[in-house]
Amino acid sequence: ALTTVEFELGSQLTTIDTFAFKECDALTEIKIPKSVTTIGTFAFQSCKALTTVIFEDGSKLETIGEGAFQECIALTEIKIPKSVIGIGDNAFQSCKALTTVIFEERSQLNAIVEDAFKGCENLTTITAQSDIHGLLEKHKQTNTNIYNNPDTNGTQKSVGSQITGGGKKSRNIRKRSRKSGGMRPIVPSIK
Predict the structure, then answer these.
(1) What is the pTM assigned to this prediction?
(2) Does 129 score more than 70 pLDDT?
């Protein structure tokens, strides 16, 4: 069974395509080359043993597609490369062990669908620089079930305290339009 994926040094791969590793139940680790710009729809969906996703230094990744890591129930932490500009619908949905999301400094993120982290019931820490603060705060406001989960003692865990503040750049969150099936921007207020 496939347990680890590592590409050759200097790989020129640009896309990890739709369903590429879907349901690879034994896959525990993948190292993604810096040349990859797109992780396609459901590329790693239901890789239930996946614990480690490493993006090569200097990553050029721009898009994490719809459901890309959906139901990767063993994934505990993800570090999003600064080059990522968009995170798709349900990208990390039901990653039940996910506790930490780190956005690299100088993040270019400008679009995140409201339910990108839906069902991540143990997500307690999001680390990001201030210029994407407004984007993440809006995401937090529309996903209170993700960011305020009671722990075993009935107290509240809050991601909000882990997000740095003070950003001035306008960023968009995208929400599915039920009529068109497309995306429409929701512009958060930045303080």
Answers:
(1) 0.74
(2) yes
